[in-house]
Amino acid sequence: MSVPPVVPAPASITAVDAAPFRIDGETALVGGPDATAELAAIIRVRTGLDLQTAEAADDAGDAIEVRVEPGGAAESYRIVADAASIIVTGADDAGLFYGIHTLAQLITATGEGWVVPAVDIDDAPRFAYRGVMLDVARHFHPVGTVQAFIDRAASLKFNVLHLHLTDDQGWRVHLTSRPLLTAAASSSSVGGDPGGFYTQDDYREIVRYAASRHMTVVPEIDMPGHTHAVGLAYPELVEDPVLSEQVRQTVREFGGELPQAGRPYDGLAVGFSSLRIHDEATYDFVADVFGEVARLTPGPYLHLGGDEALGTSREDFDLFVSRASGIIADLGRTPVAWHEAGSAKNLADSTVGQYWGFVSPTDGMDEQARAFVANGGQLILSPADATYLDMKYPSGHERGLAWAKGPTSVERAYSWEPSDVITGIDDADILGVEAALWTELVRTPDDIDVMAFPRIAAVAEAAWSPPTGTSDLRTWPSFRERVGALGPLWSSLGIRFHPSDEIPWAAS
Ligand code: ACM
Prior knowledge:
Elements: E1 12-15, E2 21-23, E3 28-31, H1 33-47, E4 53-54, E5 63-68, E6 77-81, E7 85-90, H2 93-106, E8 108-110, E9 113-116, E10 119-123, E11 129-135, H3 143-154, E12 160-164, E13 166-167, E14 170-171, H4 180-185, H5 200-212, E15 216-223, H6 228-233, H7 245-254, H8 280-296, E16 301-305, H9 314-330, E17 334-338, E18 352-355, H10 365-374, E19 379-381, H11 384-387, H12 410-414, H13 418-421, E20 430-437, H14 445-452, H15 455-464, H16 476-485, H17 487-492
Parallel strand pairs: 3-4, 3-5, 5-7, 11-12, 11-20, 12-15, 15-16, 16-17, 17-18, 18-19, 19-20
Antiparallel strand pairs: 1-10, 2-9, 6-7, 6-10, 8-9, 13-14
Helix pairs in contact: 1-2, 3-5, 8-9
The structure holds acetamide.
């Protein structure tokens, strides 16, 4: 008997040889108000049924019961469904939320109405950190778009929203200690599109909304490169652009102007800007920025960037990231940095590294990643040729970049195993997995959907599910069937997914 389709694949799922549970207008939803409201909302979207909720069961009819039952692993849940009832228990509120979203995937249309197959699921995450990154710097995306992205990601059991808040093209969060950043450097986006920024209330609302979907916000302030926008506000802190052959080549390929000091940059080149490394005013700036971002952010992580600082000498880069990580550690937070920072000698202890090389590492990037572990930190894995959602698809949709071995198929996004990426690194060294949506070419909510879905579901499975090779479920043939079954749910949620021809999409 085949098991019902669930993505990400649960740790344990057993099809039960029994009649399904039928959902109709009489079905009662029983449990606490938050959980029953969540369940009622998703059932309404999927089926059109408006079901009654109650704190306690009466014996009148069939019920779906949702409750927290402490004792299991963090974020774990259990679903037991048969013809008479469905019981969803979470070890905590997050686990119950994930159980409810798994249940939503199990609801199917049949000739006789809506059913949930008889099933027994016992599920818990593999990794504690399951991230999605949204770049709001290359194109600004307003609060409502970010909230929709949170809803989509949380339904796939992602629990971290990494916001790439600053880059050469714009500064997107207002800081009262440095008000010129948003006053002078937020109005541009790539390609001459409008910019924008989050007020502090906007940012707090994103943090609050994310928490309501069991997601933690990790803000990234990218330094010492990717800082051209800082120079629009505080020219004394930034070096003149370094116009390398790589920068010129990008301008030839994608158009736009070469970067110029004091002028907003709206092109696609990277690696030309740098903060002034040997000026104490720079570290006053870093302390102001991270101090204020820390006050706005309840989560444990602050991301300092550190990627593609090609306009900074290696020695200066090492000095800078060491000091910046120390400033973050002194705030009582855990620094996170892209893998390039791993080679710095005096990085703050336990700094987390984010690996963005390929699934098969090149150019010593694995060495840089291992250095974080030697320094007492863990790794977040974002192999660019699998998890970068801004890469082109092989067919059916034109948008996207290609530098990370693109086009990137859904199969490639799926077919990698986290513990195999960096030799010598195993699960204990891996904090988690993150999908990244860079937005040079991603302008609208529909662009976000089409680039993310369905590949984001493949990354969700790498982050949540047991390792590849441990069951028939963790295989590409299984995944493509299971993700295909989600099409109708995604459509009912308004997700404009890419109807990739790699996937057998279900009709209803
Ligand atoms: C990156 O893709 N520059 C982290």
